[in-house]
Design brief:
It is a single chain. The chain has 130 residues and is mainly alpha-helical. It is 78% helix and 0% strand.
Length: 130
């Protein structure tokens, strides 16, 4: 990674620290949680890791066989990690393991969608080759 890319990665990391630090400050000082700060801190962190991995924030560019293999495997692992984490967030945020006591229906729908996203995507994509 050349100097310019290192500087950009450093700046993106500083932006991430600034956003998450401000969000943490507001939470501790004013006891408020800002959804926009959380969202944009995750966005900045994703840009930072894309810069580290691929040298650009979109993660695109010319990729050889190893790069495509890394993307494929990390996408599969990331899908299952996201599925587990969304289920954990549902049960932890609701404070119960009993589905009858859960009131956050949008989050239940998101957790349910994690189970069907890959099978539906594979079904649609397989039609391209069959």
């Amino acid at each position: 990674m050349n100097n310019t890319k290192k500087i950009i990665a450093f700046i993106v990391f500083i932006v991430f620290l600034s956003i998450s630090g401000f969000s943490l400050y507001k939470w501790i000082r004013f006891e408020t949680i800002d959804a926009a700060s959380i969202f944009f801190s995750f966005l900045a962190l994703s840009y930072f890791f894309n810069w580290l991995n691929w040298g650009q924030h979109e993660g695109g560019g010319e990729k050889d066989e190893l790069d495509r293999h890394i993307e494929t495997q990390s996408a599969k692992i990331g899908y299952y990690v996201l599925m587990i984490l969304s289920g954990l967030i549902l049960f932890i945020s609701e404070g119960t393991g009993n589905f009858n006591e859960i009131d956050n229906y949008p989050l239940v729908i998101v957790v349910g969608l994690t189970f069907i996203t890959v099978p539906i995507t594979e079904f649609v994509y397989s039609k391209k080759y069959k």
